[in-house]
What we know:
Blueprint: H1 26-43, H2 54-62, H3 77-91, H4 96-105, H5 115-125, H6 127-137, H7 141-160, H8 166-170, E1 184-189, E2 196-200, E3 206-208, E4 225-230, E5 233-241, E6 247-252, H9 253-256, H10 262-268, H11 270-278
Parallel strand pairs: 1-6
Antiparallel strand pairs: 1-2, 2-3, 4-5, 5-6
Helix pairs in contact: 1-3, 1-7, 3-4, 3-7, 4-7
Amino acid sequence: MSAVYSGGMRVPRLAACVPSAMPEYMQSLTVLQRVLDFQEALAEKLEPRLGFRLEEALAKWREGRPLFAEATFHYPPSLLTEALQGLEKLLQAETPAREACRALLQSHWLQADAVPDLMGRLLQEREAFLEQLADELRVDAKVLGSVLRTVLSPYFVREAAPYQEWITEARWRRGFCPICGCWPGMARLAQEDGRRVLACCLCHSEWAFDRLRCPFCEQEGKPEMRYFTVEGDEVHRIECCEHCKAYIKTVDERKLGHPAHLIVEDMITAHLDALAQEQGYH
């Protein structure tokens, strides 16, 4: 459900991005387009407020810390409540995602003094806090993560936008996002030179990363890193690590023939997620 990897909130009509040979995805695409439109409208109500200086950013990156580490976030609780209510209505059918929306709306986490703590802990503690929060709300952790990304991504995309041009100067070589600290959701091999580029699952920032290194545990070399493809599809691959058993889906833009819209590529490669998980990767 979460709309990610668009490089910003404004994206082309997704129907134009899906190959005509894949009509089975059109219904899912319609739902995804509604979510993207919802996110775009939400983003227009948010303004960046963090205001980092380049010197401050470079100092954090030299220490291996993401730019937003220890930041205090200013997402108005009333707007976050409105976003969750809007998402609940958008989902229409009774689903686990609607249950997660309602659980959040009924929790203390939307109080004014709790929202910055919620956002900060999600970035700092990642999966550990998400699991704890899911247990507290009695909902599925993956579903809860998807709901939170959907309503929080517009905020983090807007806050991250002013700093995108600094990432190259930072020479960031860690597996997590140099801006918000989240893990990458997908990767691409750049059309112009084949370099590996990771894409953040939350703020949509992108950064170059070594081809034979795991973003998640940072093990390096061919014995640990491998990839596999599905017969008949040279564009998409699953890159996996034998050390930590993590995987990431990757799009080869050189074989795709044009820059990838990763939000679409993520949707039309759901079968690769299932395949990777069947083989014991996560």
